[in-house]
Amino acid sequence: xxxxxxxxxxxxxxxxxxxxxxxxxxxxxxxxxxxxxxxxxxxxxxxxxxxxxxxxxxxxxxxxxxxxxxxxxxxxxxxxxxxxxxxxxxxxxxxxxxxxxxxxxxxxxxxxxxxxxxxxxxxxxxxxxxxxxxxxxxxxxxxxxxxxxxxxxxxxxxxxxxxxxxxxxxxxxxxxxxxxxxxxxxxxxxxxxxxxxxxxxxxxxxxxxxxxxxxxxxxxxxxxxxxxxxxxxxxxxxxxxxxxxxxxxxxxxxxxxxxxxxxxxxxxxxxxxxxxxxxxxxxxxxxxxxxxxxxxxxxxxxxxxxxxxxxxxxxxxxxxxxxxxxxxxxxxxxxxxxxxxxxxxxxxxxxxxxxxxxxxxxxxxxxxxxxxxxxxxxxxxxxxxxxxxxxxxxxxxxxxxxxxxxxxxxxxxxxxxxxxxxxxxxxxxxxxxxxxxxxx
Length: 440
Fold this sequence. Notes:
Layout: H1 5-14, E1 24-27, E2 32-34, E3 48-51, H2 54-59, E4 63-64, H3 84-94, H4 103-109, H5 114-125, H6 129-147, H7 152-158, H8 164-175, H9 179-185, E5 200-205, H10 212-221, E6 228-231, E7 234-241, E8 244-253, E9 258-263, H11 271-281, H12 288-297, H13 318-327, H14 333-347, H15 365-370, H16 373-377, H17 383-397, H18 409-418, H19 424-434
Parallel strand pairs: 2-4
Antiparallel strand pairs: 1-2, 1-3, 5-9, 6-7, 7-8, 8-9
């Protein structure tokens, strides 16, 4: 998809939804930046300034529009958009890895120096790591203030801020109004009230079209019993993030080009990583037009209709997905589901909250690693396949095998293939879904 200045102007003037989230436009005369689909009256071209990232717009001194709400824009699929280091760091920051941590700690976890990381992100994204982290926190806070009844204090901590004073100061500095003022402007938010006992709800947008029914059918057929459920047009599952367990529920709102995410109250303190996980699971940052153009140039023919909205499903839990892939070797989807159910009930921790369909947390690598191969085999597996799962669990549990979106693809592929019983098909399937690498 063309991304030159003239195409930006045309997309803005036609409010082309295909470009939503691919760039932002700032207006010099007002100091505000918007999504290309903003309903506000169009400004003169000479007053416009384009940015590829909301953080870059804010770093340049612009504040987000209250009408089009830049925090709702879909993200970017950064497979080829920026070099791997900057892309990996941006993903980690979006998932909240700098909440309570500094740039040096993030860089160290990625095996590079802080100076190298700052230089890579400044060069490729136009912002420093701390500026990107602050923008993610502020935009999430803005969304929470607008869409939920969380108190300002709860919003600050849920967004990743470690200090109420710092939250208020940065919010006022960037947005030129305090959180309480934004809350008063917002419609549908009960100012100052506590969150309901069943959690909060957020809107996560995508670029249309979106083949919701097909994606839901795929996930439903492979749902891990007691952990996942597709029921009455909704996807539900238990998750464990940052030592906190809870339940998420996702429904489709086609008229808003988005998914409604319901997060249980226990997960509110880890909102950033939960939201990042859900966006990967449903491939919300995909660019359908770009994908269609690439497939056409590769000889696949034109992609039209429902096929244009197909997404590559991700994974809510990488280890769970890898185990499911192993269990699915040479058996039907139904048989693999039965085996996954047995494994869950044998090794997974029970869910503390009451739910009519979900009773267990995702099966953990640590629990299986502590068991014997014989215990794993008792669910109805050949010894060889039980050994595969046990070996995988040991690697994940001790940290030597990290199946995550930021992983080095070549290195992870080699590690997976070293596990007895994992071949190229299984390794690439895991990488495609759990690592969210579409070129597997």
